[in-house]
């Protein structure tokens, strides 16, 4: 699955007064049809994409589907398979922020309504980068609620992750063969000195919390105490342990040069640059969760010489092949995003309008060298990998085949399996 994405972040800053809408900054609202044509030009079949939540979800159980109707019809007409990103770093103004305990159930209803309106969609990322969303919003104080406490972080994390789980359940009720790709940042913390080892080890457990909760993976004693000390209840924790959605999931790992960190003696962190790299860190996540893997995000600036992004693409692709050759079931790769982005040099903390040359195309929709390199990579490898890979094939049908007999049979089989598992779970059995 070779993929790219349309950046659709929309967190708020400055106490909620400013919304950082990347679709607006990158002029996707004006050029969405052209953007979809550029995806096809690259030879890409999968697009990480979602409607802007803040203009689509207008009130509880009220929706404005006008933009989604138009754009998703455009995707279907071009036979592009969307990986639908329903919540990307922000919520509508009316719901407030991620501290709101009503968010999980309300968001699940939104996800279910989306699935009913677009029943041909099979792939979803209900909530993008749950760990980063909670961290930047409620621990670093950068976005949305702009808190800087452990309690704020744990509250945001439990609400965000519960929203993701409930959304998966709501979508499965409509589309029982849905597949969920958890695009999550893959992090690592390196101790700068022996005295920093304990803090680094703690942070290396915190990095797993969103996926631990999402997949019902029991946390260690230190993380359990951390969650309990910062507002999670035993019942809330056991909610996550009792879920049965992991078998519908692909673990998406995002990796950037900023994903590794140096932990100082005082406990503060700074970027370390690439030390381990994607393949080493992904192996750590894979051994914890035992799920199929997808490299769901990467990019780097084109740079002054103009070839830095091309060299990074080659490096990340080599890491993907390394993971594959290790025998792990890696099913896809993504350069994110299609076009340059705006204000990511400040992690969207500042509304400067500064263009960051990170895309396959610039904001005038001219292809960059990395776009040409990605197009060639896809052409070279798309027919080789299926015949040489020992890993699984994901049961996905493109939009043109969604109404075919094979796709209908798969949905019917998935529905029976889902109902059987659900009935067994309600009886207290082990499915």
From TrEMBL:
GO terms for molecular function: hydrolase activity, hydrolyzing O-glycosyl compounds. This is Glycosyl hydrolase family 1. It comes from Deinococcus yavapaiensis KR-236. The keyword RNA-binding does not apply. Residues 402-425 have a biased composition (Basic and acidic residues). Residues 402-431 are annotated as: Disordered. Keywords: Hydrolase. The keyword Hydrolase applies. One of its GO terms (biological process) is carbohydrate metabolic process.
């Amino acid at each position: 699955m070779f993929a790219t994405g349309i950046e659709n972040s929309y967190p708020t800053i400055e106490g909620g007064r400013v919304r950082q809408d990347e679709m607006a900054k990158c002029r996707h609202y004006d050029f969405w049809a052209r953007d979809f044509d550029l995806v096809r030009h690259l030879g890409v079949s999968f697009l990480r994409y979602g409607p802007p939540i803040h203009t689509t979800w207008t009130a509880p159980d009220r929706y404005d589907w006008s933009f989604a109707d138009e754009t998703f019809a455009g995707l279907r007409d071009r036979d592009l398979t969307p990986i639908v990103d329903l919540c990307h770093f922000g919520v509508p103004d009316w719901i407030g922020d991620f501290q709101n305990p009503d968010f999980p159930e309300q968001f699940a209803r939104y996800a279910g309504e989306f699935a009913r309106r677009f029943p041909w969609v099979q792939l979803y990322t209900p909530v993008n980068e749950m760990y980063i969303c909670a961290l930047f919003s409620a621990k670093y104080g950068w976005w949305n609620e702009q808190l800087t406490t452990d309690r704020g972080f744990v509250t945001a994390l439990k609400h965000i992750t519960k929203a993701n789980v409930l959304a998966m359940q709501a979508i499965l009720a409509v589309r029982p063969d849905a597949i969920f790709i958890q695009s999550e940042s893959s992090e690592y913390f390196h101790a700068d000195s022996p005295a920093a080892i304990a803090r680094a080890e703690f942070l290396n457990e915190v990095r797993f919390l969103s996926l631990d909760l999402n997949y019902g993976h029991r946390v260690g004693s230190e993380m359990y105490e951390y969650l309990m000390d910062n507002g999670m209840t035993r019942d809330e924790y056991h909610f996550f342990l009792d879920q049965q959605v992991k078998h519908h999931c692909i673990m998406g790992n995002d990796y950037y040069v900023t994903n590794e960190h140096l932990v100082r003696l005082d406990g503060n962190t700074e970027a370390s640059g690439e030390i381990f790299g994607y393949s080493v860190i992904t192996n750590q996540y894979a051994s914890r969760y035992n799920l199929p893997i997808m490299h769901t995000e990467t990019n780097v600036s084109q740079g002054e010489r103009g070839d830095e992004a091309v060299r990074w693409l080659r490096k990340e692709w080599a890491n993907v092949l390394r993971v594959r050759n290790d025998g792990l079931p890696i099913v896809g790769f993504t350069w994110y995003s299609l076009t340059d982005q705006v204000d990511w040099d400040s992690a969207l903390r500042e509304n400067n309008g500064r263009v960051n040359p990170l895309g396959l195309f610039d904001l005038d929709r001219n292809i960059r060298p990395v776009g040409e390199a990605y197009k060639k990579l896809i052409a070279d490898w798309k027919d080789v990998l299926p015949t040489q890979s020992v890993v699984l094939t994901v049961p996905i049908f493109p939009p043109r085949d969604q109404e075919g007999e094979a796709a209908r049979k798969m949905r019917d089989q998935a529905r029976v399996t889902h109902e059987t598992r659900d009935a067994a779970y309600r009886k207290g059995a082990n499915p």
